[in-house]
Specification:
It is built from six helices and 22 strands. With 353 residues, the chain is α+β, with helices and mostly antiparallel strands. The protein is rod-shaped, with a radius of gyration of 61 Å.
Length: 353
């Protein structure tokens, strides 16, 4: 039996079919070796900065990661993409998302991000933030810590909602009061000739709000809508007309100046200092002696209790606010005596009457 098997084996080995089968098997082994060599790859995988070298027979990034038990979540970042084909010595970088708390306008949102900086995280999740009531504006809003700060797990980010509005307001333009002198009007008196009217202007402001509160207001433009009309006031320059009070009967008598004086009386005088004869004329114009430095000679004076008199005389004892009234007798002078606190009024100065 053994001899028959050996004889058969020898006959088959030497047959043409045996040679063909051997060749076929050799070709298959060679092809299998080529396929295995081409499918086998060495890649480097870096996860959150930690690098590992892997040998894999997988074809895509996703397959490689799954084969090693690495699950990629929605917010994780993978380079190259999960669908990318793998070649020998490729590098796969995975950055896992970390939680970040964002506070703005009284709301607090928990985000997961794999971005490098705070600013990048806010921009990447801007739609998610908006859907939850946080309307982040990268050009205006203030962020603390700053937008260039590196992301760390569980960090707190405060966003100040900054809003700039253009506001237009109407404001009044105050009128001015123009004062002009009027010689027909007495001193101390004023008359409004025409009333003033305020104008109007439209002022444009740039108003800045932070978290809804106004923090600054800057005028950027002003436009006059109506001009103001100035008021005109006339101011008197004429000396006021003054009347001597308590004169009794007779028409009102104007005066220029009032003096409070002491008064004595004299009589039997020949000629006055001005060369005229003194007179006493009740109801008319009598004669008085004065200090010319106080009452100019030739003035018309009204003396309380005596009447009108010409300042026509002087005297050695008549100095300052003292006057000496003339009577025709010593008895009348004694009756007059010396009077204090007497009112004397200059009615007209020399040349005015």
């Amino acid at each position: 039996m053994v001899e028959k098997f050996k004889a058969c084996k020898e006959n088959f080995s030497n047959s043409p079919n045996a040679k063909k089968l051997t060749l076929a098997i050799a070709v298959c082994l060679a092809l299998a070796t080529i396929v295995i060599v081409n499918v086998r790859k060495t890649v480097k995988v870096t996860i959150d900065g930690e690098e590992e070298t892997l040998v894999t027979y997988k074809g895509t990034v996703e397959e490689v990661l799954l084969s090693k038990g690495i699950e990629v979540k929605d917010k994780d970042k993978v380079e190259p993409s999960l669908e990318s084909k793998i070649d020998e010595n490729d590098k796969i970088i995975v950055k896992t998302a970390v939680p970040v708390n964002v506070k703005m306008s009284g709301k607090e949102i928990a985000l997961h991000t794999a971005e490098e900086t705070v600013g990048q995280a806010l921009e990447a999740d801007i739609e998610e933030l908006k859907s939850k009531g946080i309307d982040y504006n990268k050009d205006l809003d203030e962020v603390n810590p700053g937008v260039d700060t590196k992301i760390t797990p569980n960090m707190n980010v405060k966003v100040v909602d900054v809003e700039i509005k253009t506001v237009k307001e109407e404001k009044s333009i105050p009128y001015e009061t123009v004062v002009k002198n009027d010689s027909n009007l007495e001193k101390g008196k004023k008359v409004v000739k025409s009333e003033g009217t305020n104008g109007k202007k439209q002022v444009t402001y740039k108003v800045t709000y932070k978290d809804g509160k106004e923090v600054s207001k800057k005028e950027v433009q002003s436009k006059t809508l109506s001009k103001p009309v100035n008021a005109l006031v006339m101011q008197g320059t004429k000396n006021p007309v003054k009347y001597i009070p308590n004169r009794g009967s007779g028409s009102p008598l104007k005066y220029k100046k009032k003096l409070v004086v002491q008064s004595t009386a004299y009589a039997l005088h020949g000629t006055t200092a001005t060369g005229v004869k003194p007179v006493y004329n009740p109801g008319g114009i009598s004669t008085i002696a004065v200090d010319p430095r106080v009452i100019p000679l030739g003035s018309l004076v009204y003396v309380e209790g005596y009447g009108l008199a010409r300042a026509a005389d002087t005297g050695g004892a008549i100095k300052g606010n003292i006057i000496d009234v003339y009577f025709t007798s010593n008895e009348r002078c004694i009756q007059w005596g010396r009077r204090y606190g007497l009112n004397a009024y200059i009615v007209a100065y020399p040349g005015e009457w």
